[in-house]
Amino acid sequence: SDACNFSFAFETVIGYGTVEECLTPEDKAHGLNQIARHYSDRDWEFNPQDVAKTRVWVIEIETLTGKRNLPL
């Protein structure tokens, strides 16, 4: 057996862009719905008190790169 003959499986993504915080309750709820829709295929009603305590960020992606290694 060769001590240096090994590898790891991995997948990675690196992105660059700009980030901006959503400040209004409407923008926050819209952002949260974008995330929730990805997992549930529906819109949600959010409790206003929960939205007020939650920080939501919009990321405008400028570039993405990815890399994958799937050794045998």
Question: Which terms summarize this structure?
Answer:
elongated, two-stranded antiparallel ribbon, alpha+beta, 72 residues
Quickly describe the structure:
The chain is α+β, with helices and mostly antiparallel strands and about 70 residues long.
Summarize the helices and strands and which ones pair or pack:
Blueprint: E1 10-22, H1 25-40, H2 48-52, E2 56-69
Antiparallel strand pairs: 1-2
- Report the major sheet: 2 strands, antiparallel
Structural class by secondary-structure content: alpha+beta
- Termini gap: 16 Å
SS element count, helices: 2
- Rg, please? 19 Å
Write up what this structure looks like:
- With 72 residues, this protein is α+β, with helices and mostly antiparallel strands.
- 29% of the residues lie in helices and 38% in strands.
- It has 2 helices and 2 strands, in the order βααβ.
- Strands 1-2 form a two-stranded antiparallel ribbon.
- The chain is elongated, with a radius of gyration of 19 Å.
- The model has no long low-confidence stretch (mean pLDDT 92).
